[in-house]
Specification:
The strands form two sheets. Strands 1-2-3-4-5-6-7-8 form an eight-stranded parallel beta barrel, surrounded by five helices. With about 220 residues, the protein is an alpha/beta fold. Helix 1 packs parallel to helix 7 and helix 6 runs parallel beside helix 7. Helix 2 links the parallel strand 2 and strand 3. The longest helix is centred in the last third of the chain and has 22 residues. It starts with 5 loop residues before the first strand and ends with a helix. The model has no long low-confidence stretch (mean pLDDT about 95). The radius of gyration is 16 Å and the shape is globular. It has a single domain, classed as TIM Barrel (Alpha-Beta Barrel).
């Protein structure tokens, strides 16, 4: 039996960080196409960074209430781009580019994740982040017990993850993937190669512990 939690490292802005993330074992690299973010890159910058990715490492473009033209321009510049919508986008907005997408959900005590999931049936996965003012999780951990057990889509767990807590997060939630940004940074948009290696190693440790448990070891 194989248990492999996928790893997405988001908010990269430098070529050396992309290389270090890939070397650490990331399955996906996130580029923020939201100009108000301190981690924002232009379409041209994102395309240049994505060109360095090897096969089977997925580029992901994060958008917040972007117009369809901006999303399509990014798709043209980065052909394998997986879309990630983090704003108030409707189902039609998410589907407008005709590309696979992730839909971010902002978790709060009164948030109905099952209803949200049914509103976006075409989403490849739901990315669960903390609810804060504005958009994004702000590097905050949310209460994982808010996640119902029967979410009808793969779950990408985000929100305040770091090398120190990601093993516990995976054992508690058992997500399909984890997403990290601020937890592996020197400063906003500047990643730390050591922290990225530690994060990926902690994910693999969680997977090994899950496999041992499933085999009754």
């Amino acid at each position: 039996m194989t248990l492999k939690t996928r790893i997405k490292i988001c908010g990269l802005t430098r070529a050396e960080d992309v290389a270090a993330a890939v070397e650490a074992g990331a399955d996906a690299i996130g580029f923020v196409f939201y100009e108000r973010s301190p981690r924002a890159v232009s379409t041209a910058q994102g395309a240049a960074l994505a060109k360095a990715l090897p096969p089977f490492v997925t580029p992901v473009g994060l958008f917040v209430n972007a117009d369809t033209a901006q999303v399509r321009a990014a798709c043209e510049a980065i052909p394998p781009l997986l879309l990630q919508f983090h704003g108030d986008e409707s189902l039609a907005d998410c589907e407008a580019a005709g590309r696979p997408y992730l839909r971010a959900a902002r978790m709060a005590p009164d948030f109905d994740l099952l209803n949200f999931a049914h509103r976006f049936p075409s989403a490849q996965a739901l990315l669960l982040d903390a609810f804060v003012d504005g958009y994004g999780g702000g590097g905050k951990v949310f209460d994982w017990s808010l996640i119902p057990p029967n979410v009808p889509a793969p779950v990408v767990l985000s929100g305040g993850l770091s090398p120190a807590n990601v093993t516990d997060a995976i054992l508690a939630v058992r997500p399909w993937a984890v997403d990290v940004s601020s937890g592996v940074e020197l400063a906003k948009g500047l990643k730390d190669a050591v922290l990225m290696r530690q994060f990926c190693a902690a994910v693999r440790e969680a997977d090994a512990r899950r496999l041992d448990a499933s085999e009754g070891l």
